[in-house]
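Write out the 3D structure for:
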Amino acid sequence: MWGSIFGRVFGPAGRGYRVFFGGFLLIIGLMFRPVCILILITLVVAASVHLGTGGGLEDAAHAIEDAIMFTGLIFIAPKNTV
């Protein structure tokens, strides 16, 4: 999807909405684990794009650190959540 025109036009908006509304759902505690998984997938793709374009670990560090944090949040999700 990275190379398609659809992905280049609608990809950034989709990722932005996913992170914005996902963050909102995390704050209010709804759908905690599914949102963490969606944001984790977004961050893994971001890190792989940074590393794939030759950016190195300096460019991908923020996405990798946040991916590790969201992986931890999946395991320590609050009680009574999906």
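The helical segments are 5-28, 32-52, 57-75.
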